[in-house]
Amino acid sequence: MLIVGGLAVFVGAIVQGAVGFGLGLVAAPLLTLLAPDLMPGAVQVVNMTLPLFTLAMEWRRVDWGGLGFAVLGRLPGSALGAVIVVYVSVYMRGVFVAVMVLVAVALTARALSVPRNAVTITSAGFVSGVTGTATGIGGPPIALVYQHAKGPQIRATLAMFFFLSAVQSLAILALVDELPSAALMVGGALIVPMLLGFLVSGPLRRYLDGGKVRTAVLVVAVASAAGLIVQNVLSQVLA
């Protein structure tokens, strides 16, 4: 599990290091198939650690005003996500998130610009809190709101948001007794491939900063939905 899961985290860290999000969408579906009892806690440990490396380089580009609204929205979203973890099946959670992401991408891809204000950022933070706590994938809602920003601002703002969000989700999961010690141990072991993936992401990050960030954000968001659908189909087949 650590070998296969580590490879997924490595690839996810490359994507997130370049685009600003993506670790959860690559790693969470596979980790859920391999060890559903350890999710989403294990991936949240990695989600908490990776942003620190991004912030070490680009913390000056954080949109602090937008971050405040996003965190404000995530607080009640995380609480709802914890309720979903306790009472809703993994299959239904995955389908719900996948449909929401696909609808959001379809709407924003057709628009000339996505409004980025207190209402949209707070709403995105709320949705991210629900999906991040329930499935470990909370990046797409915030990333879609920031898709027209410059690459460094997207990565820095999302990094700070993901760090705070992961800490919050881990605390809530522990509060509802959904954070086994094994999840923390596996998450800690996955930090090594995560760091290697982040180091490899440098060239891709420079390439995308040449005006291709928005396309990358939309592609990665669609991939997150597709990954969840595949995960849930496989889980039903293997059940």
Average pLDDT number: 81
Low-confidence stretches: none
**Which series of helices and strands comes N to C?**
HHHHHHHHHHHH
* Number of alpha- plus pi-helical segments: 12
Task: Report how far the terminal alpha carbons are from each other.
Answer: 18 Å
Sheet with the most strands, sense and barrel status: none
Rough shape?
globular
Strand fraction band? under 5%
Question: Could you tell me the number of beta strands?
Answer: 0
The number of domains: 1
Query: Structural class of the secondary elements?
Result: mainly alpha
> How much helicity do the residues have?
over 70%
Q: What value does the Rg take, in angstroms?
A: 16 Å
Organism: Nonomuraea salmonea
Family: Belongs to the 4-toluene sulfonate uptake permease (TSUP) (TC 2.A.102) family.
Pfam family, one: TauE
Protein name: Probable membrane transporter protein
Task: Tell me briefly what this model is.
The protein is mainly alpha-helical and 239 residues long.
List keywords for this structure.
Probable membrane transporter protein; mainly alpha; TSUP; 12 helices; cell membrane; transmembrane; single chain; 239 residues; transmembrane helix
Q: How would you portray this structure in words?
A:
This protein has 239 residues and is mainly α. The protein has one domain (2-238). It has 12 helices and no strands. It has helices spanning 2-19, 23-34, 41-58, 64-87, 90-109, 118-135, 139-145, 151-175, 181-189, 191-200, 202-208, 213-238. Helix 1 (2-19) packs antiparallel against helix 2 (23-34) and helix 3 (41-58) runs antiparallel to helix 8 (151-175). The chain is globular and about 40 Å long. The two termini are 18 Å apart.
